[in-house]
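This week, study the protein below.
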Amino acid sequence: MIRVLIVDDQVMVREGFSVLLGAMPDIEVVGEAVDGRQAVAKVAELRPDVVLMDIRMPQMNGLEATREIVAADADAKVLVLTTFDLDEYVYQALRAGASGFLLKDASAGQLAEGVRIVANGEALLAPAVTKRLISEFSKLGTPRAPTQERVGDLTERETEVLVLVAQGLSNGEIAEHLVVAESTVKTHVSRILVKLGLRDRTQAAVFAYEARLVTPGG
């Protein structure tokens, strides 16, 4: 069972998500929190597999809570849910350590699948959000020198895999694209994370954007 903590300041949203996810045979909602501060405490107490995190909340917002949760436990997995489809929130959430980002208008099936993907250690970005995020990063100008230097540590194939990760492809999709075994892709991803000193696929995606390895047409 995937144990989930739901964090949102609106009771109807929490109850709705709880009902939707509770109906799934492989997902269990273990708790709820009304703001970021309570979320940090609940995560420490309940140790959920995935935290569904709203962004705009009183006391402590979702970005600050995500940052604290990930700082306390590097293996924590936070799936950010918001009605605000804005690039600044996507970027800030990913930099804070979130493992995924979904809009609240996602269907029950998309929500449940998002929880499963994040619980499995893969990054989750809504395709439409990913395209805009790539576009925004492309406007930032020259990448930071340290980022460029670190790209040089990767092999040509590892760089290719990193670009596909940043585009939101799963290991299976990358394997199909490159015509290799999925286990080979997993090995490449693991080596990329070690070489770049990153904790997960989401950080790898952010790194690729910052290094300008991904462009709107790429």
